[in-house]
Amino acid sequence: MLAAQREIIVRELEDGTGAVVAVALDTGGLRSGIRMWFDDLDEQHGPVAEIRPYGLRGHRVSLKFGRFAGSVLRQIQQASPEDQQLARALVASISPAAAVIVKDQSLDDWTVADGSFQMVAIIKHDGPPDTDDAVSHTCRQAIVPMMAAMAELIGYDVVESEMSSEQPEFEGAITTAVVNRRERNPRNRLLCIRLHGEACAACGVQPRLRYGADAGGIIEVHHLEPLANLSEPKRYDPATDLLPLCPSCHRAAHTRRPIPWTVEDIRRMLGASND
Ligand SMILES: [Zn+2]
Ligand SMILES: [Zn+2]
After folding, report:
1. Distance 247 CA to ligand 2 centre (A)
2. Average pLDDT of the chain?
3. pLDDT for 46-76, tens place per residue?
4. How far is the CA of 243 from the centre of ligand 2 (A)?
5. How far is the CA of 45 from the centre of ligand 1 (A)?
6. Closest ligand to residue 201's CA
7. pLDDT, average across residues 92-100
8. Which run of H or of E encompasses 248?
9. Residue ranges per structural domain of the chain
């Protein structure tokens, strides 16, 4: 595989996981593949994904842990039920056609119990697997969600941007911080887009179509948890609690604080301003 494809892999993985990723060409075996891992853990101390050509039109993707991953495995055991749920949802978002297998476990309730954990998927293409498009497709289909799931379990911190410090202090400040974290978590973003697509839930604009691929990533993630209910902790569900919004609609939603305007409110505003 070519250097350009390594770049595709790094970009896709870093966007989806929020972690810095390292990539190496694997020249062992008959058909060479590419291995990738989280740079701060290196290849021996964390999860390693591998992509290899499979048959004439496919890729085989696998994920295992490095030989000295003990401390990361212990860290993963500290993951909250919510992190677990998000990690499983990320893997469950891989197309059924990829026939994902978690070794010796079911897809519904897998855990990373020890270093023998292994996940495998087969991605089929319309043409040969060595093109940029095929590699990119396999990344999006399988490698990114798998590695994003691992990032969620390991607990890569989501960097808070300046926007959150602009928020005024009020009673729901802690919950607002949680909402902001969820909205900025790249794994939540990935899952939201996989589940709901890239069209703004309020105005329907698709930035990827309107501005092209270079600016296509500007769709944002909005977290719907009503702050008024903060005394009643509710189970977080990325499928129902996250929605894609374009930057304008997202900004509009947060003009009301602490409880943002609903998507229906924004549609009403849009309807009124268009008259
Ligand atoms: Zn919009
Ligand atoms: Zn929001």
Report:
1. 10
2. 88
3. 999 999 999 999 999 999 999 999 999 999 9
4. 9
5. 42
6. 1
7. 94
8. helix 247-253
9. 3-154, 162-274
Tokens 């055991």 -> residue? 77
Task: Tell me the residue type at 115.
Answer: G
Ligand nearest to the CA of 220: 2
Q: How far is the CA of 222 from the centre of ligand 2 (A)?
A: 4
- 250 C-alpha vs ligand 2 centroid, how far in Å? 6
- Between the CA of 252 and the centroid of ligand 2 the distance, in Å, is 9
Residues paired with residue 102 on neighbouring β-strands, in sequence order: 119
Distance 206 CA to ligand 1 centre (A): 8
Over residues 113-156, the pLDDT tens digits come to 999 999 999 999 999 888 999 999 999 999 999 999 999 999 98
DSSP class of 246: -
Closest ligand to the CA of 256: 2
Architecture of domain 3-154: 2-Layer Sandwich (3.30)
> Which residue blocks in 34-185 are alpha helix, DSSP H?
42-45, 70-77, 81-92, 132-138, 144-154, 162-166, 173-184
SS3 87: helix
Amino acid present at 154: I
Can you tell me the distance from the alpha carbon of 168 to that of 192, in angstroms, rounded to the nearest whole number? 27
pTM, 2 dp: 0.87
Beta bridge partners of 53: 59
